[in-house]
Amino acid sequence: MSHPNQAANFLKDEKRAHWHDETLWFVREKRDISSKGIPEWEELRKLASGIKDHVLSKLDYYLEELEKTASANGIKVHWAKDAAEHNEIVLSILQEKKCKAIVKSKSILTEECHLNPFLEKHGVEVVDTDLGERIVQFLNQPPSHIVLPAIHLKKRDISEIFHEKLQTEKGNEDPAYLTNAARIHLRDKFMKAKVAITGVNFAIPETGEFVVCTNEGNADMGVHLADVHIACMGIEKIIPKREHLGVFLRLLARSATGQSITNYNSHFRSPAPGKEIHLILVDNGRTEQLSREKFKNSLKCIRCGACMNTCPIYRRSGGYSYGSTVPGPIGSILSPGIDVKKYSTLPFASTLCGSCSDVCPVKINIHEQLYEWRQEITKAQGWSAKEMSMKMANGIFKSPLAYKVSGKVLRATLKTLPDSLIYNPLNAWGKGRNVPEVPKESFKEWYQKNRS
Ligand code: SF4
User: Fold this and answer.
1) How far apart are CA 259 and CA 303, in angstroms?
2) Rounded to whole angstroms, how far apart are CA atoms 99 and 424?
C-alpha cells in the first residue's frame, strides 16, 4: 500500500479529482458557518476534549461500569479483543437465532472488522441500509469517507448503478427519484430482517444506555422491526454521563455536515418485551494505542470527518488512496498503530498545515501526531534520503567557503544536467515540479556589482 501511487491513480481523472476537492470544501464551509453560529463553540471544544481526556485516563473503570449498568438494564454485554473475536460473536448470535439475512446501519467499526465479507462467507446476506453505504455495497467497494461513504461518486454514477441493480429508468439522475427507488428496495429488506446491526456513537456508563446518530433513520427502522439488535462499539466511545451528551451532539453534527443537530439521535437503554439487545465492546488495537503516550489522544476521535473535509491531501487524493477503513488525517494516525509497515506512507500524506487540528471538535493535535509518526517511521527505516540531504546541507550552511563553492558548482552543473536525470520515475521530486531557472551569479556577487 503506497499512498502516492494510489493518489496518482485518483488524479488521472483530473476533472473528477477537482470536483471531489470542491465538493468536500463545500462541506467544510458548511461546517464553518454552522460552528460560527454559536458563540460558545470553542468552549464546547475545550469541554469535549477535557471529557474525553478524563475518559481515557479511567477507561477500564468506565467500561466495567458500563457493563454493570447495561447488564442491569437487560442488555447482553460481550467483550471482543480483536476483529476476529467480534465477528465470531456476531455470527454465534445469528446462528443461535437461525438468521440468514441482516440489516446494518452505518458502522465504521464493522468495516474495520471486515464483518460483511466474514458473514457473507458464512451464508448470511448483509444489507447496508445507509443510502451511501448501500450504493458502495452495490459496487463491492468500502466507504471512501467515514460520514459520506459515496462522496466520490457523481449523480450520473449512481443513476447507472441503480439502473443496473434496481432497474430504475436509464439516464434518470433525479436525486428524489433515485432515493425513492432505494427506499422501496430497502423497505423490503427491513421488513424481512430478524436481526439488525448498528454502530454506537456514544455509550453512557451512568445509565447503561448507548446512542446511535443517523440522518436517515435507518438504524431505528432496522432495530424496531427486528427481534434482535446487535450494537458494535469501539471501547473508546464512552462518555461518563448523560449530561455530557449535549456537548458532543452539538459538536458532532456541526463538524460533520454543518447541521445544527443530526436528524435521529436514538437512545437504546433496554430491550422491548420479547426482544434482545447485544452490545459488543471491541478493543482491536485500542488498548495498545492508549499505551502510546504520543498517540493515545487519537482515541478521542468522534468520527465526524471534519479533518478529512478540510485536508488538502484528502480532498485531492480521495478516500481510497489511504487503503484503510478510516482515511484522511486521523486515519493516518490510527492505521500505522495497527500495522506500521503496511501504512508507513500515510503520515507523509499531509502538508502539516494544521487545518485538521483546527477543525477537530475534540481538539486532537492531529498534525503534530502525524509529524511524530514520520519520525518514528524514519527511525525504524534506519536512514532516509531526506535525513542524508539535511546532514549535507548542515555541513554546507556551516561553512561560508563550502557554501560559496557548492553554489558555483551547482549553478554550473544544473544548467547542463540532462532532463532525464531529473524527470524520471526514480525521482519523485521531478513529478509535477520544474527546476527553477538557474541564476548566472550568486546574490552576493550580484550585490557586490550593484551596491553603488
Ligand atoms: S480526528 Fe477530530 S476532526 Fe477528525 S474525524 Fe475525529 S473528531 Fe472529527
Assistant:
1) 15
2) 56
End-to-end CA distance of the chain: 58
Whose C-alpha lies nearest to ligand 1, atom 4?
307
The one-letter code for the residue type at 11 is L
Query: Which structural domains are found in the chain, ordered by start?
Result: 3-8+287-380 (1.10.1060.10), 38-284 (3.40.50.10420), 394-450 (no CATH)
Which of 367, 348, 345 shows the shortest CA–CA distance to 356? 367
- The whole-angstrom separation of Cα 251 and Cα 259 is 10
Distance 307 CA to ligand 1 centre (A): 5
> What is the number of alpha carbons within 13 Å of residue 396 lying toward its C-beta?
14
β-bridge pairing 202-204 and 209-214: antiparallel
**Radius of gyration in angstroms for the set of CA atoms belonging to the chain, rounded to a whole number:** 26
270: which residues sit within 8 A by CB, 6+ positions away?
73, 74, 75, 277
* Closest atom, ligand 1, to C-alpha of 326: 5
DSSP symbol at 238: B
Ligand 1, CB within 6 Å, residue ranges:
255, 301-307, 330, 359-362, 364, 366
The answer to whether the pTM exceeds 0.85 is yes
- Closest alpha carbon to 302 in 238, 370, 367: 238
Beta strands in 276-412 (DSSP E): 276-282
- Residues 29-80: tens digit of each pLDDT: 999 999 999 999 999 999 999 999 999 999 999 999 999 999 999 999 999 9
**Closest Cα to atom 3, ligand 1: which residue?**
360
Given the C-alpha cell 448498528, which residue does it identify? 198
